[in-house]
Amino acid sequence: MKNIILTGDRPTGHLHVGHYVGSLKERVRLQNGGNYDEVYIMIADAQALTDNAEHPEKVRQNILQVALDYLACGLDPEKSTIFIQSMVPELTELTFYYMNLVTVSRVQRNPTVKAEIQMRNFEASIPVGFFCYPISQAADITAFRATAVPAGEDQAPMLEQCREIVHKFNSVYGETLTEPKIILPENEACMRLPGIDGKAKMSKSLGNCIYLSDDEEDVRKKVMSMFTDPNHLRVQDPGRVEGNPVFIYLEAFSRPEHFAEFLPEYSGLEELEEHYRKGGLGDVKVKKFLNNVMQAELSPIRQRRKMWEQRLPEVCEILKKGTEKARAAAAETLHDVRHAMRIDYFENDNLLN
Ligand code: ATP
Ligand code: MG
């Protein structure tokens, strides 16, 4: 069996540092690690439309922005197939067949769907398309026979739902689909990076993000305005590290060499945390360090992004080529699915058999 990756992002805005540590960084590592035969990266415009039906222009405009963020982070079109979801209509057809294998109550129980419905104030009127997006995500994953999906923790219930659909399909129609597993970041702080406002998750829809495309000054301002421990009022006060976004970000981004370069008076993060807990360490000092760390990580990404911004026709060509390749792969799976379901009526005059 081949090792195949499928993952992606909704083009609802520029990508942020939560995407970076939660999934993008891992993708680039896996792309370059040589253990995967194929890597598919999907710009999930159809999924984005499920809660942006009235704002198609927003989705459209963000397709190139997401592609630029990908290339800036080091996704390499020679190694990874980057494509646009809605341009692969096979995915929609698969979704339609999978819908029959899932109950309404099962989707209602999906904790991510629940949380997202609440976040969007959809309680009274959930678009059917939005409600079904976990099923369409199962179609995306299985269409490419993905064995692994690098994603943030919020995607774990989606993967669980996908595996159930695979089991159900295979038990009803015979062994056809491949069961995927999620690849979560090893570092716990990266699984669900909080927003700069301290809210549970940095999310495009919540406007609490540091974007990969933010310039140096924007990043600095955002870091310096970050939410910290509300009880840590004076420098000498003892502070809390747990649940404190500034320290969570340091856990996600800082490396020993950052201490050596920007804060040599501390041996590492543990010592810095200990000092904060004890009291006597001000938020401003920690934030200045975090800003240095973030700038060191983001500056090469920013530079590569600027370079690709000058080459938009090439970016478009990358998406077009990637989409063609993705479509061919999805068509093969759809062919097998139709065969398993015995709805391939005209192949070898099957309808007569
Ligand atoms: P939206 O608000 O439109 O849903 P989003 O910011 O949640 O946008 P998605 O496109 O839904 O972003 O997520 C893309 C990928 O990034 C998923 O794998 C998701 O798990 C991961 N991800 C998103 N936000 C975070 C975060 N704050 N921390 C870690 N991973 C994240
Ligand atoms: Mg999301």
Give a nutshell description of this structure.
The chain has helices spanning 17-33, 45-49, 56-73, 90-98, 104-109, 111-119, 128-131, 133-143, 156-173, 188-191, 216-224, 245-253, 256-262, 269-278, 283-309, 312-340, and strands at 4-9, 38-43, 81-84, 148-150, 181-183.
What's the structural blueprint in terms of helices and strands?
Layout: E1 4-9, H1 17-33, E2 38-43, H2 45-49, H3 56-73, E3 81-84, H4 90-98, H5 104-109, H6 111-119, H7 128-131, H8 133-143, E4 148-150, H9 156-173, E5 181-183, H10 188-191, H11 216-224, H12 245-253, H13 256-262, H14 269-278, H15 283-309, H16 312-340
Parallel strand pairs: 1-2, 2-3, 4-5
Helix pairs in contact: 3-15, 4-8, 4-16, 8-9, 11-15, 12-15
The chain binds adenosine-5'-triphosphate (ATP) and magnesium ion (MG).
Characterization of this structure:
The protein has 353 residues and is mostly helical. The protein contains 16 helices and 5 strands. The chain has helices at 17-33, 45-49, 56-73, 90-98, 104-109, 111-119, 128-131, 133-143, 156-173, 188-191, 216-224, 245-253, 256-262, 269-278, 283-309, 312-340; strands at residues 4-9, 38-43, 81-84, 148-150, 181-183. The strands form 2 sheets. Strands 1-2-3 form a 3-stranded parallel beta sheet. It has a two-stranded parallel sheet with strand order 4-5. Helix 3 (56-73) packs across helix 15, helix 4 (90-98) runs parallel beside helix 16 (312-340) and helix 11 (216-224) runs antiparallel to helix 15 (283-309). The longest helix is centred in the last third of the chain and has 29 residues, at 312-340. The two termini are 32 Å apart.
